[in-house]
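Hi R.,

Here's the chain you asked about this morning:
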Amino acid sequence: MMRKLWVSFFLFFFCFSVFSSSYAVTSSFIWSQDMEEVSTLPAANLELESGSAILIEQNSGKVLYEYKAHEQLRPASVTKVMSLLLIMEALDNNVIALTDKVPCSENAANMGGSQIWLDVREELTVEEMLKAICVASANDCTVAMAEYIAGSQEAFVEKMNQKAKELGMQDTTFKNCHGLDTDGHVTSSYDIALMSRELLKNHPAIMNYTTIWMDTLRDGKSQLTNTNKLIRNYKGATGLKTGSTDLALYNLSASATRDNLSLIAVIMKAPSTKVRFAEAQKLLDYGFSNYSYEQFAKEKEVLKKIQVTKGTKQTTEVVFEKDTGILLEKGTNTQIEQVVNLPEYINAPVRVGQKVGEVLYKLNGKTLCQVDLVANTEVKKLTLINIMEYTFLEWFRLLR
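And the predicted structure, written out as tokens:
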């Protein structure tokens, strides 16, 4: 019995000594690996027939090629990229659900253009509406969804323009949610790339619909075939949206992913549907041939454990706050340095998501990108109360 009492007192004084002392040391280490140099390729001459074009890398938003990218043009049904973005935001914010039944107004039923011939007596689910919009570019479904979310198409268009401002789409003014020709309804290939990136990067579930080649609605009675032929014919195609009218001619926002490299190519005012698909493919081919994407870490990936002083736990896991990678030009080998700045230990309390350090990726002394390191587990601060609690729990455990 005396031996157990001595052990208990030892535990108490040990905990108290830990609680009443602290120190801090900062350290770093450098890791290097042969990588390909990040640089800008000479401007390519792709000899496009279209009126405007752009190619961007999805993760970084870096422009890889552009031609009259800020010229204001009519977007036609590529307008629906913004409509889809607002629908996905409403889903993610639990404003609507995929199983919601959406009614059809007279206004929606009479839209004209591309449609699935909605009837005012029928209702489709949000998921069915999404499928019709993404695959068949249905104007009637787009208006029905706009009215369901915002109360009216006009109110929904206000939301579209507000979102455009938030994204920095300075060349854009939306007048409707579907893209039928209307005076003043304009955007640019650059702005289309911006909203396409926002949709794909932050709402990847949209690809459950934009990658459908053929499907049905209404218990198989309505056939759907994707207006984007690249979905069937181009390796790695993930979407996104076609558009054409007599005034806009032929437009396309085309996205594809290969080997972790995700690209978005936008074509506007192509003279024919054949040219828009061929030139979008030419842009994507150029990107995949000349660039690669090196992913260094994934969000929540554990780097190491770090010691915690004055805490109820001795360590906490350190993880990457977000996905980390770099766009690289193919053909030039060099060294990318990973510099980890992390203290040897931190003081409690520690909350989940608290920044505890950072990682820098450098080339020739220049920082290419940076990601924060955050704590993955909570550690409460030691107090006299929880020290006593811990000691007595150990005491009673020993006395059993």
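The chain has eleven helices and 18 strands.

Let me know if you need anything else.
M.
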